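Sorry, can you check?
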Amino acid sequence: MGTYILLANYTEQGIKGIKDTVKRTEAVKEMAKKAGLTMKESYWTLGPCDVVALFEAPSDEAMTAFSLSIAKLGNVKTQTLRAFSSKEMTGILGKMV
């Protein structure tokens, strides 16, 4: 399973329904389960992003399909970052030529 950091910013629609943001995040967590992903953590943040969430997914394709599914709902715009653990990074560095 790969680790992914999802950055989200509210759309105009998302701000209009801001009081439901916690409920929507719980719904996203359930969507993730159905898609074979795990939402490990989610945070509402100050700064350039409104929400940051940590996911585990079986592949880049699975995470991409899931993030597009979230964006399709219209409440947030997303960016997804692939994150590597120190063990994974050590393996990557070992493949350098």
